[in-house]
Amino acid sequence: MCLSFARSLRISLCDLCVLCVSALIFLVAPAAAGDAQRGRVVFALAGGCGCHSGKDGPVGAGGEEIKTPFGSFYGSNITPDPDTGIGGWSDDEIIAAIRTGDARGGVEAPVMPYYLYVGMADRDVEDLVAYLRTLPPVRRENRAAEVSVPFPRLAYRAWRLLFAPGGVAPSEAPTDPLPRGRYLANHVSICTDCHTPRTRFGAPDTSLYLAGTDSGPGGQTVPNITPDRDTGLGTWTEKDIVRLLHTGMKPDMDNVQGLMGAVIDGVGGGPGYAEAPESELRSIAKYLKTVPPIRHKVSGD
Ligand code: HEC
Fold this sequence. Notes:
three-stranded antiparallel beta sheet
């Protein structure tokens, strides 16, 4: 009787230990506040955060070279590996890196478009972080940038001060199609980051908003996607734009390549625009038809 009591006590003590340890892990491990499933959609709408993955994956484990006039950069490891990724970062730290450019190593280079993600709604960025925490952790050291700017960290801080507009993100993203399309194009899917030319300081030239450039990221030509009839998408219907974002196919049955292909298909096996709900792509297309048409010819036209 006594023995069996002791035995059962031992078992329950053991159970208690297991319970304590799991409670401890729960308390110590950074708890993601967001919804990872919704976060996967945000990730897809963000073109699969493609700079952070190599062509052959793994997703988020660090990207290929990004050539800029200021040097070469490599997207960092955003998998939850505790040593080489963001596994040891709190949600707030990850959100700061995404929206304000404040990372553990100092202010980020503006190759990371934090100046656009600054407007990403609280809920979307929280869900995105929850999704990032579900990626398989990959141990891979970040590759240092090869920059041609003296005192780069100071330069990035100064750049942020001069060119990052700041602002306050909404707690929830707009839901009506037109404002939602504007929100996605500017703050999540960041069409503007590639399709708007940059000044010699690397800041977006807002007078040519979405009007394309011959010297886009990686030196690629990026087309004018304003509704200008001759040099932009004036003859495309909303459906044409949705089809392009969904399949990569243009109205003339040609396929987009390069960076546009990457944001549509996703990089390294992760989701891209193609996997985003069609209603979201419709909102983007609707908004694009309303931006001011700008006559601006790029060489690909
Ligand atoms: C990472 C850079 C990048 C991002 C982000 C990006 N694009 Fe593109 N886009 C390109 C490039 C480069 C091309 C040219 C591809 C080609 O020539 O095959 C292109 C082509 C296009 C075209 C074809 C236009 C034409 O005249 O052929 C459309 C439409 C388009 N993008 C719309 C968008 C929209 C809408 C978004 C946001 C939801 C977006 N893009 C985000 C780089 C980007």
